[in-house]
Task: structure prediction
Amino acid sequence: MEFRADTGRWVRVVERATAAGGVVLSVVDISDLKERGEQLELSQRRFRAFAQSTSDWVWEMDADLRFSFFRGSIESIMGADVESLIGKTRDEFLLPRLVEMDEHKWAVWQDVKEKMNRRESYRDLVYSVPHPDGSIVHVRNSGMPVFDDNGTFQGYRGTAAEITREVMAEQQNQSVRQRFTDALDGVDAAIAVFDDQNKFVVGNKRFVDRVNSIVAGLASPGRPLEEILRAAMNAGYYGDVDGDPEGFIRRHVAGHRDADYGPVSGESGSKAYNYSRGGEGEGQVAREFLTANSSNVLNMKLSSTCSQ
Result:
């Protein structure tokens, strides 16, 4: 029997019979235990409330890594019967359903399993499963281990969110990017695209091969134009640069930044270079790429930098 005393402390009364037929009552102060339990319950409620507001569903596993709790829209999004999932491991639930898994995704899947066996947190496990309606659902999943006050492992809590639109948009972007690169590969010059911060976005094979021959991996997305120019200059691509290497870098960066590359107005107002290799179609590919990426890559410019 447990109750709160007039002092505000929680006590537990344990009744025990004696050999002589009597009764011994033991009274134990359990206030600290109650407080820890209430704090744990409050933490669980807060976690679930927060997770529900930032994801499509939340889940919990027990110490044997078997699902013990779900809340959210997992049934509508994945077409899964929650009751049938309770007591299953993730492998039992998902392995038979996984689709579109490549070598990288399998490596991430295995890495997450190893982290869970080590009782570590993990983030952004992405997987794809078929929905009963025939569509493919893409999901991002994250989890963290739970321990009690004694450090004993209790299981995992986590969140999951459907990212189908995000994945499909990226797939479309990659397709357009590849078409754009293929179009530029037909040009007999080293051509690259830099964003409005003068950072490398994409280049044709001639450009990438030439730049990477200077420093392996130099032609990587996000690489500043100045860094590429400086490496090319140090490799002797531009001769003695009139004995003024820093002035050479400043002039080229400023010239690239301020030059008018023949803007083509798009829906977002972004700029593109109207390049055409045998017809309007190739130029359209360039504009499609720039428009599709206008939300995070603006005022992109085609450049013949390092084309000597």
Residues 101 and 127 are 8 Å apart (CA to CA). Confidence is low (pLDDT under 50) at residues 261-308.
